[in-house]
Amino acid sequence: MKIAILDDYQNVALGLADWASLDAEIEVFTEHIRDRDELASRLAGFEVVVAMRERTPFPAELLERLPDLRLIVSTGGPRNPSIDLRTAAERGIVVSHTGYLPHPAAELTWALILAAVRGLPAEERSVREGGWQVGVGTGLHGRTLGLLGLGRLGAKVARVGQAFGMRTIAWSQNLTPEKAAEHDVTAVPKEELLRESDIVTVHLVLSRRTRGLVGAAELALMKPDAWLVNTSRGPIVDQDALVEALRERRIGGAALDVFDQEPLPAEHPLRSLPNTVLTPHIGYVTREVYEVFYRDAVEDIAAYQAGEPIRVMPVP
Predict the structure, then answer these.
(1) Which position among 262, 268, 295, 311 bears the catalytic label?
(2) Distance between CA atoms of residues 266 and 229, nearest Å
(3) 103-278: what fold?
């Protein structure tokens, strides 16, 4: 059996699970392969692919060019919209998934919020360059935290905001006042949330309903000093509209861990805008999460080899 481990940027996969327990030839790909022709060529002959969440998409046209592929292990929960599950099923390719830990993404959300409101990137850079204080930060106590989405992640983020003394409000398509009240959060219409929040943070699943949910009209409702934070999925926010709002300083800034295209192109305008805090989609990149991902991947592959049941991703 030949196994490909994709997008292991930090080259840590082999050290975080017992891959030696598998009777297999394993190749680790530490660099992201964007070109589809190159990817199809490099993956030729592999029976198993371990995909790091949505870093490498597997649309129908790629799956059709991989006749030897029999198993895709998708790290993370039982949902990966970047894999064409119907085509995989038609071609006899099993798609499984691993476990997941939600709290690291909530923790990174607060790292971004605090870095944004206290101007930490500029202050840290000034100290390293021999300078000292360069800005005046903003406190959080008494401010309003607006949550687009109040699921597992949103609720965790809300609790931290409340600990800081923030007012917490939330909106999602199916959120009820009763459900929000369970987390001491007030459910409000989306427009009200955008108008009143000092921090707007996104915690929604990417779907047809949420793609482009925050566009030019929504950004126009935000306070001129409000920050938009996104640790969910890039396409939930209209990136072109966001870049324009940031350039014209119609909002205070954006703290982003996710983008439309990842890795973010070197020449992308977001990289040069001063009113941004940017991280390279590391919300889930912790040792604890990776240990779950790769341990479960080994278990899935071993079960597949033995003909035993594995965590199959449901076909929509």
Answers:
(1) 262
(2) 21
(3) Rossmann fold (3.40.50)
